[in-house]
């Protein structure tokens, strides 16, 4: 499994696309958080990273599918998937190796954003950022990235076309993140099942963890979604 994980890591960083994707991710966050006046944290008047944690999931919607779109699609296209089947690894080890390799890349992309928190903390005149909420939000971002990674790898397992894998992965991530919340706000569901429908969406559980309270139900939800998509991926490559 760790061999596959290293292979995924090297495959991403062996070409310029990987570096460009992470650079654009950090650049967009920096521009929105410190340059553009409508979203700049410097104009808040108080030390908070809430703007970053509201914005970052939307950028991850595009970054993570960019990372995962080649995971299995390239293996099919290049014919190396047939070679992988001769290795002494199970389909589950292949899928989890791909997942862990891509997830480490996502973590590497998120790590430099800690500088934003340090910067706001140093610039604040009184008090500072809410450390508990900030830590909880970063845990939520990591779990969100893990879910998007599992979705992206699942989408990549269905097609040898990387563009189709990217579009499919990004679309499913978008639906999971905001789709249930949008449905719950329909007039027909108000004052009834709207709360329970919203609970099916990632946004609900991400906001819950972002408050700094690590609820077991939120962790079980994220773990369940990750396992579900990786299980589909495993079944799919087993058929192949």
From TrEMBL:
Keywords: Cell membrane, Membrane, Transmembrane, Transmembrane helix
Cellular compartment(s): Cell membrane
Superkingdom in the source lineage: Bacteria
Pfam families: ABC2_membrane_2
Membrane topology: Multi-pass membrane protein
Gene Ontology CC terms: plasma membrane
Segments crossing the lipid bilayer: 12-34, 46-67, 95-115, 135-155, 162-180, 219-237
GO molecular function, one term: ABC-type transporter activity
InterPro entries documented for this protein: ABC-2_transporter_component, Motility-assoc_ABC_perm_GldF
Protein name stated in the entry: Gliding motility-associated ABC transporter permease subunit GldF
Organism: Filimonas effusa
Taxon lineage: Bacteria, Pseudomonadati, Bacteroidota, Chitinophagia, Chitinophagales
């Amino acid at each position: 499994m760790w061999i596959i994980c290293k292979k995924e890591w090297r495959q991403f960083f062996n070409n310029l696309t990987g570096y460009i994707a992470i650079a654009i991710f950090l650049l967009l966050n920096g521009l929105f958080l410190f340059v553009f006046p409508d979203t700049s944290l410097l104009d808040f008047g108080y030390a908070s990273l809430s703007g970053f944690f509201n914005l970052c999931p939307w950028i991850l919607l595009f970054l993570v599918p960019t990372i995962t779109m080649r995971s299995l699609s390239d293996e099919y296209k290049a014919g190396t998937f047939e070679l992988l089947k001769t290795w002494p690894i199970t389909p589950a080890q292949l899928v989890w190796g791909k997942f862990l390799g891509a997830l480490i890349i996502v973590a590497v992309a998120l790590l430099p954003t800690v500088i934003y928190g340090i910067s706001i903390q140093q610039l604040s005149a009184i008090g500072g950022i809410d450390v508990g909420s900030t830590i909880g939000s970063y845990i939520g971002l990591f779990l969100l990235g893990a879910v998007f990674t599992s979705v992206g790898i699942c989408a990549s397992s269905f097609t040898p076309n990387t563009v189709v894998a990217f579009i499919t992965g990004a679309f499913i991530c978008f639906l999971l993140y905001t789709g249930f919340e949008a449905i719950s706000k329909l007039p027909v569901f108000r004052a009834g099942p709207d709360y329970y429908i919203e609970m099916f969406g990632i946004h609900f559980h991400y906001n819950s963890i972002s408050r700094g309270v690590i609820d077991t139900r939120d962790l079980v939800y994220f773990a369940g979604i990750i396992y579900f998509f990786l299980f589909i991926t495993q079944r799919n490559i087993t058929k192949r």
